[in-house]
Design goal:
41% helix; Rossmann fold; 8 helices; 7-stranded mixed sheet
Amino acid sequence: MEHFSRDTARARRRHLLSSHANWMCQIVDETGNPEARAYADLETYSPQVFDEVAGLGVFEKLYSVDPLLSPDGECETAVEAVRNTAPRGLGAVSAFEKLEHEYAPLAYLKAAWDMLAPGGLVFFTTRTITGFDLQTLWDKTPYIFVPEHLNLLSIEGISRLIERAGFDLVELSTPGQLDLQLVKHASEQDPSIRLSHFVRYLLEQRDSLAHADFQAFLQKHRLSSHVRVAARKPVG
């Protein structure tokens, strides 16, 4: 069973990284700077993302900036690991699930801005406090930890942060799929969690189709807690 869990976890991770790579490269192809052909991932902890990005043929040079897990031996693609410095003139920079751990998120995004060529794009994923599961569970949320999670911004706060860092917003979406499941699991594990009458009724009296439709509503109206952002450095 443990071996099966590890294998399925790897498969899920690979699927997620493939999704990230396709999302980024499509936006770069549509709105990026065609002359900036280098990509960097910040504080890399899943080096396999470079294999997924390289397979799409958008970038010629790949960097891992201050990697948490070295790409050496972890991916098949040639990647330059850079520590205590930052490359410049990049076409894209990514930071997956990092912003919520940063003491100074504005400085973090400005550092990404400095790495990019004009027309370059920054991509990041993070959590938002305005997501359904966090709004419902609040201080009973079992997967948010202090001091590990330092900043859980609202959707409005993330939008304002991007503007203050000097970027033009390209996409701010919440494609999360697990909000309702996370609330259900947390309430089952912790009897002290008191759900609203509506949420309790939804979980206990409505079927899987209703649950899927409700999750789709959260995604559509940016009410999931998983956020995906693409923003562009202005030209000129």
